[in-house]
Design brief:
The complex is a heterotrimer. Chain B is mostly helical. Chain B contains eleven helices and two strands; from the N terminus they run ααααααααββααα. Chain B is extended, with a radius of gyration of 29 Å. At the A-C interface, α1, α4, β3 and α7 of A face α5, α7, α8, β4 and α10 of C.
């Protein structure tokens, strides 16, 4: 291009402009004092930190604008440390800027590419040394080496196998059995239908059989949300309607998208919202997804009452709960 | 008696005696009449309260909720919602609604305590419903367990109202409000009545004792001091990220500009 | 010779006789570093890393990486007698019973956020100035690696306390593992040592967080810095600055004092944040249990864009032959980030292929002089910011009286519409700036002073710019579009084929520019004036 030819000329590095401190001893003295003050401020910060650590009570609160009632010790420790560090830095930089030599220097660069002679030598060396090993000729060695190295790569993978057990049918099952009572979470109290008025919700878990303890793994699979609507609000097919009891409907609380607890129930719209990714489920239509990234409704738990009038599961969940996985069939 | 009789001729003796007699008579009468007739008196005041409430209702509420609180096209029936619901909705200023927005907002109450009580009495007289409570009735300070309240809050409330009761978003512009200014009775009434989007938390699933624990935890959250400095709204990592990109990086880049500039 | 001099000389002699370091040090202590504020961004990241090592070590003295269940009986009353993991309880202990523990936790977390933010702005500086070009492609790759690992390291770090918020994050990570076709449920079981949440995960990620990844970081950062050292720093164009030199201050003492001082300043600012602003108040979140959740559960900002993408994903799942593929997780959670980061890593090679430019570059581009690259950068940034906005849509909704649905739909469309618009607009802006530069060089600076000519016309006085400025504005090499030989008349295809045509098309887009003014043009204009 033409501009290559008639480029502007590089005027070269501009002349060095001296700082005041370079020529004026007073300015230099002033800069020196400023640096010293910055160092002293840092020292004061450290003293504050040590004072706060040793002498301040950990339960003293002071009221400050913006911060509110603030823990005085934590604040003093932190502000002291911040000042001590910050001012050391400021002092060093100010020193460098005002008193250390500020003439710009020029260093030459070299090209990274090696000389052609060196490159040729390198290639020759590799060929010669590699050739003396005979890798090109001895194909048997080459192949068996490839095999052994390849197999060795598998070893760590195999060694990691015992990280955990096989999942087997774990993702397909929960602790809900036919006749398992629904109990409150927390509290573990069984619930009767009349305990819930229209518009009420309850977080429930399966009743523990005696001698067992509830683990987080159990909760992560078994958590269920119970909601009572007016029976006429439902828009369900006959089968799903038979899974409800007097307007009470039960869903797995574990989101069918990524497993968060879905429990934001809006009583008026009868929508359930997941706070993680905002999938919205319509309770009246068996938790059909009406918004957001979830692709499947929340699994519905069939419920009824037992002889004592307590709410129980009619049967286990008919599909796996929680997020999808490869072996899931629907 | 000798002692007393000395004053018999005193010039204030007669009026004093009459006053004493009147006082005794009055006290005795009021004691005698008050005990058996307390119920009667309350019924009278209750019925005036109801009629007073009916009048306020006719003026302030009936245009939306119907003349007899039977509901209309834009507002639900209030028959059977109970005094608790009225006390909550009117007492927090949510009702009457200023405009037909997505949801009623908390604002300065329009009616004073007396008027609110009258409205509540009127609505309660229509059909039985959850009764209103007073802050004094809720002995949360004595009977609540703050840690248990926290557990209950996180299981039942935090999903909408956020981990620190700061409120959160619901669908289509609705939101769960912040509980930072809520009084104990409002929290209690909200749980038993389920106002607007909020579901009902029945007494059998969350017992009244547990509700006191929840209140105690919320009160603790309201007065939670800044243990680690500015609370940043207590809404999680979003405001933390914002602060890092503004104040944090702003300060550092500012210093870097100073550092790389040439001293004069 | 004073005593001091003799002592120093003696030490130097001792070391040199055993290492031969004098020669190397003599050369390198006078090493030249150009001075510019934007060259400090990478240093912010480096220093944050050191702060992370220091504060992190402090935290390990008390942190108990175990998911064994304990009953809390520490100072924080609202959690008294609550069942929780030892990890959570020990984090509470660090916060409330170890003096300065909360401060260290907060400095550690703020430093992590600054670390990631500094990496991102450093990356943007390198991208927009073209500093990744030959011979610095390796360092670009290492940088992308550090960014990626930083995201992982940060996520693992805030997952350690086992609080309700981070537990929710782990739950989501498990769902992503579970969604991987064929091996997903096995991977999830192996990672968690069985069912979620189990008791194995936090001890395992602890080792990764405090040993494995920091080790890799140290290695990569060392190579990164050694390459910067060896290749010498790039510099901004200006008078006296060429492709063959580097102009700046010597390492000893100026740069050492400045860089060393800056470390303390970064540490000070981070400590200040740790002192005055609460971060990750785990005692408010409560211990993790899968049945609980909080409104507004988001990750830290550097994962926010990922969460935003997942949130806006359409509800796509395929069920066939008894198997399920969750596109709604795989696309936003793995495939899209994979494409984005691979594209980012390969960009230096892509650009060099597009432009056919195989030369070394040590002078930085002014972003306006590479309109296509700048536009691509702004486009990618727009994409990320839109995703990030959706990652905080619930908080934005409540604070700005919007609805999460509106924000979600805005970002769903915006993700596809706004980045191309950003590209076009940025490119036009760059070209306009080039035009303005040309004006400035040829006609000088507008002074605002009016001058009446003898015949009554008013003209504004233009002041010619300095030769230094003129050089800075015109020194850049303007790329030329690659030409592709057309198919010949007999219909014989050009051997470069379709690939060649695509390349030529890209090259043309990359070479779009306003011709830089030449000295000749300037002379002609000036000749005309006088």
């Amino acid at each position: 291009m033409s501009n290559e030819i008639s480029k502007f000329t590089d005027p070269g590095l501009p002349e060095h402009v001296h700082r005041r401190a370079d020529s004026d001893p007073k300015a230099a003295k002033r800069a020196e004092q400023q640096v010293a003050i910055l160092f002293l401020l840092s020292a004061a910060g450290t003293v504050l930190t040590i004072y706060a650590y040793i002498f301040m009570k950990s339960n003293t609160f002071i009221f400050l604008p913006v911060l509110g009632d603030t823990n005085a010790q934590q604040l003093a420790l932190g502000v002291g440390l911040a000042l001590s560090l910050f001012f050391i830095g400021m002092a060093a930089v100010h020193w460098a800027k005002t008193l250390m030599p500020d003439t710009e220097v020029i260093a030459e660069r070299h090209e990274f590419r090696s000389e052609d002679v060196d490159r040729a030598d390198f290639v020759a060396t590799v060929k010669e040394q590699g050739g003396s090993a005979g890798l090109g000729r001895r194909t048997l060695i080459k192949r068996t080496m490839g095999l052994s190295l390849g197999l060795l790569g598998l070893a760590p993978l195999v060694l990691l196998r015992d990280l955990g057990p096989m999942p087997k049918k774990y993702f397909n099952t929960t602790d809900w059995k036919s006749g398992t009572r629904l109990v409150t979470d927390p509290g573990d109290r069984p619930i009767k239908p009349e305990d819930l008025e229209v518009g009420a919700v309850a977080q429930v878990l399966p009743e523990l059989t005696s001698g067992t303890e509830r683990t987080l793994e159990n909760i992560g699979k078994d958590a269920v949300l119970l909601i009572r609507l007016r029976p006429e609000d439902f828009n369900l097919d006959a089968e799903r309607l038979s899974w409800t009891h007097e307007g009470i409907i039960a869903f797995s609380k574990i989101c069918s998208h990524m497993g968060c607890a879905v429990a934001l129930y809006e009583q008026q719209t009868k929508h359930l919202l997941c706070p993680c990714h905002q999938s919205t489920f319509d309770v009246t239509r068996a938790a059909k997804v009406i918004f957001g990234p979830a692709a499947r409704p929340l699994p519905q738990l069939a419920i009824t009452v037992d002889a004592d009038g307590f709410l129980v599961a009619q049967k286990p969940f008919t599909e796996p709960i929680g997020p999808s996985f490869w072996e899931r069939s629907s | 008696m000798k002692h007393l009789s000395r004053y018999r001729r005193h010039r204030f003796a007669a009026p004093a005696l009459i006053l004493a007699a009147l006082f005794t008579l009055g006290t005795t009468f009021s004691l005698a009449s008050a005990l058996p007739n307390k119920a009667h008196m309350e019924a009278t005041s209750q019925s005036t309260l109801v009629s007073e409430g009916k009048q306020i209702f006719a003026r302030g509420c009936s245009s939306c909720h119907g003349l007899n609180a039977e509901g209309g096209t834009i507002a639900p029936s209030l028959i059977g919602v109970g005094a608790a619901s009225v006390d909550f909705q009117v007492g927090t200023g949510r009702m009457p609604m200023a405009d037909m927005s997505q949801q009623a907002m908390r604002k300065k109450p329009l009616y004073n305590e007396q008027e609110t009580a009258a409205l509540a009495a009127y609505v309660a007289s229509l059909a039985p419903g959850p009764a209103s409570v007073t802050n004094e009735q809720l002995t949360w300070e004595r009977d609540g367990n703050v840690a248990q309240g926290g557990q209950l809050f996180r299981t039942n409330c935090a999903m909408c109202h956020n981990f620190a009761a700061q409120g959160g978003a619901l669908t289509l512009g609705k939101y769960a409000p912040s509980l930072m200014g809520s009084e104990p009775k409002q929290i209690y009434e909200a749980m038993i009545t389920g106002p607007q989007s909020m579901p009902v938390f029945a007494d059998k699933t969350i017992t009244p004792a547990e509700k006191l624990s929840i209140i105690k935890w919320i009160k603790a959250a309201q007065s939670e001091p800044s243990l680690g400095g500015a609370a940043l709204g207590r809404v999680g990592p979003v405001t933390e990220g914002l602060l890092v990109w503004t104040l944090g990086l702003g300060l550092l880049v500012g210093v870097a500009v100073w550092l790389a500039s040439k001293a004069r | 010779m004073s005593v001091k001099d003799r002592a120093v000389g003696g030490l130097a002699n001792y070391v040199d006789e055993r290492t031969g370091a004098a020669k190397w040090l003599k050369k390198n202590l006078t090493k030249v570093f150009p001075d510019h504020w934007s060259f400090m961004l990478g240093e912010i990241a480096l220093y944050s890393f050191i702060i992370l090592l220091l504060t992190g070590t402090f935290l390990t003295f008390w942190f108990d990486p175990s998911q064994r269940e304990v009953i809390y009986n520490g100072n924080y009353a609202p959690l008294s007698q609550v069942h929780m993991s030892a990890a959570y309880a020990s984090t509470l202990r660090i916060s409330f019973e170890v003096r300065g523990g909360l401060l260290m936790r907060q400095i550690h977390h703020w430093a992590a956020l600054i670390f990631m933010a500094a990496i991102v702005v450093h990356l943007l500086r390198v991208f927009f100035t073209g500093a990744f070009r030959k011979p610095r492609e390796f360092n670009w790759l290492i940088g992308v690696g550090l960014l990626t690992l930083g995201i992982v390291e940060g996520f693992l770090g805030y997952s350690l306390p086992d609080d309700l918020l981070s537990g929710t994050g782990i739950r989501i990570a498990e769902a992503i593992l579970q969604a991987i076709p064929v091996v997903g449920s096995y991977l999830a079981f192996f990672a968690f040592g069985g069912p979620f949440p189990g008791t194995a995960f936090i001890p395992r990620i602890y080792t990764v967080h405090v040993l494995l990844l920091p080790g890799i970081f140290l290695g990569l950062i060392t190579i990164h810095l050694m390459l910067v050292w060896y290749q010498k720093h790039t510099q901004y164009p200006g008078p006296g600055r060429t492709e063959k030199n580097v102009v700046g201050y010597p390492l000893m003492p100026v740069y050492m004092a400045k860089a060393g001082g800056f470390f303390f300043i970064v540490f000070g600012v981070t400590a200040f944040l740790g002192a005055v602003a609460s971060i990750n108040p785990i005692w408010l979140y409560g211990p993790y249990t899968p049945g609980q959740i909080s409104a507004g559960s988001q990750p830290d900002w550097y994962m926010g864009w990922l969460d935003g993408l997942v949130r806006m994903s359409p509800p796509l799942e395929t069920h066939a032959f008894g198997h399920t593929i969750s596109w709604n997780i795989l696309i936003p959670g793995l495939i899209l980030p994979g494409i984005l980061f691979t594209g980012m890593a390969l960009y230096p090679f892509i650009e060099s292929w597009m432009t056919g430019d195989k030369r070394e570059h040590h002078l930085l581009d002014r972003p306006r002089n590479a309109p296509n690259r700048t536009a691509l950068g702004v486009m990618s940034l727009t994409f990320m910011i839109i995703s990030l906005i959706n990652g905080g849509n619930d908080v934005i909704a409540t604070h700005f009286h919007l609805t999460i649905n509106q924000i979600m739909w805005f970002t769903r469309f915006g993700l596809f519409l706004l980045p191309p618009i950003a590209f076009v607009v940025t490119k036009r802006i760059c070209l306009s700036l080039q035009r303005a530069d040309r004006e400035l060089v040829l006609h000088g600076r507008e002074t605002g002073r009016l001058l009446m000519l003898p015949h009554g016309e008013f003209v504004e006085v233009h002041e010619p710019i300095s030769p230094e400025k003129a050089w800075t504005l015109t020194q850049h090499l303007q790329p030329e579009a690659l030409t592709v030989a057309p198919d010949d008349l007999n219909g014989v295809r050009n051997p470069a084929g379709l690939k060649g045509k695509i390349r030529a098309r890209f090259s043309m887009a990359h070479a779009e520019q306003i011709a830089a003014p030449t000295a000749k043009e300037k002379n002609e204009i000036e000749g005309g004036h006088h």
